[in-house]
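FW: tagging you since you asked about this chain on Friday. Here's the raw sequence from the shared folder, copied in full. Didn't touch anything.
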Amino acid sequence: MTTSRLPLLLLALAGCSSRPPEPPAMGNGIGPFRGLRAVPRQLAFTCVTPGCDTTLVLKVASTVNRRVAIKRVIFSKASAEYSLVPSQPAPFILGAAGEFTIDVRYTPESAPAADDLKVLVTYTDASPDEQDPDRLEPAELEVPIVRRLVGEPALALSPPKLTFGLVPAGTTKELPVTVRNAGFGNIALALDQVDAGHPWVAVSLPPLTALVPDAGVTVPVRFSPLTRGYYRGDVVLGSSTPAVGAVALEVEGTSFVDGVIALEPEERAIDFGDVSRRQRRTVTMQLANLGGQALFVSSVTVRDPSNNVRASLPNAMQSATLPSLSRLPVTIELDAATPGQVDAMLVIASTDVARPSLEVPVRGTVTEPRLAVAPAMLAFGSVPLGWQVARPVELRNVGFGALTVRRLTFVGGTSNLYALKNAPALPATIAAGGRAVVEVEFRADTMATFGGELSIESDDAVNTITTVPLSATGASCSQGCMVANATPSCMNGACGIASCNAGYHNTDGLLSNGCECQELGMDPAGFCSMGVYKGVLRDTSNASAQHTGMIPTPDDVDWVSFYAEDANNLFGDDFDVRITLTASDPNIVMCVYRQRSSARQGLCSMNEATCDVRSYRRDGSLGTDDGADFDIKVYRRANSAPTCTTYALSMQNG
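HL: got it, structure written out here
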């Protein structure tokens, strides 16, 4: 009894369900769980060369137990090489859990392009009830189309060079070149790019330019010279197929009828650069006949006063005959025996009618650097106790080629009271004719005489080590206090400066060089009323004045004054005062004071001050007398170090 009722019970349970069970998911499909799935997941074509004709079948199945509206079946973009035919023309209704097929055909016409193509199936739920909770959302199934590309394409040329020989101007000669796909696999390439390189050269690509592996095509190349001349260059052939490199075809031709001599690669000066003495260096050039007839080279010689340069043809030949567009190596050798500049001339004599003697300069330098040191001995003399005195040693390269200074040291036994100052970073290079300066400093700590030697190691061809003897004596103040341009002082046994000579200043504050700064001319007084007066500057005369001075100490002040006259002018006002201060020291500035008056007063009233400037301008006004006294104070900004620097003051009115 129980056994007979079991099927009825199962049927009853099935009838109670609100929706039918969904079919099982397709193991080979892709896409949303509820919607359409495609088998296979992508369409892969393996025959990809021109002439192939392949059709693949794509199965599209519904994964829901509902009717689905197939709205359209298309490609993602237009393609002349692909076509598709669905088993039912869209739009149509696909039944619950139904399926249909799409035939996709591929007939390649050229090399595969780098495109991204897909089959697109747009669909939605077929039920008119938009409130149905089980309604299928609109979607689009995408199935990629790929090509099974195997191998690697490559362009090759045969022959790699075309020599047209003599082609008279105004005529044309055509030669063929074979372009081949030298790659492997199933990838064709598109021969669709060409650069002839010159107006005299023309290349015609055939209409069918897709080449499968081992296939080739003949390409005609034409040489059409328009004038008398010679041409050698490259025709570049390329492909739009990805990762295929272009190839270059060398083309050579001439419209010169007679033989024409040339030296290649260039006829510019042959430059050997720097060559150390007793070394050899060679350069090989090519003698070329760029004409259409044979050329006879009668001699290849060198004019060289230094006798360092020689030229030779192969196998000790003294002369040679060059056929049209042929070449012959010539060797130029520099035997660096004599130091100095090489200024030679390579001379090639031939039967070239236009240029029977071809001359090419040969240059270079046979190097032999030499070091000259000045002074040969460094004597400090008597140096007062407590002083540090520095003396320069000049290093000059009096030879040829660059000199390298490797080491600067003091020879053993030299007093430690000597030290190097401002020494260059080593190794240091000094060009031919150049110089470098190093300072040796002596510190007088003890009353005694001290000796030593400075050793200079370089690549001097004769003396790799040059020494400079050193001598200095530490002395008492009374013995050694010699101060330049000043009266010395030995108060409490210490050497100092009692006073600078007239017109001199100790600007840098050092005792060793004394009062080193000499002021130019007469120093203007430090008071306005005692300054330098430059007279009347009339505006209608565009009058001007100049003054040059110096601010060698922190508290130095120069006063300069003038009167700016505003003359009558019926048609305008020329009054225009301009004052400019120029100095390399940025801390030298000025104050300008203006006191209006119809005539010079010279009262130094310090009115209308404009300070801490380097330029000043005061324009006039119509109907008003703008005449005024101008007092200028040139000074140094506070807390700035003094320098022995001149300034120039320019004053103008009008």
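FW: Residues 2-15 form the longest helix (14 residues).
HL: agreed, and The helical segments are 2-15, 477-480.
FW: great, closing this out.
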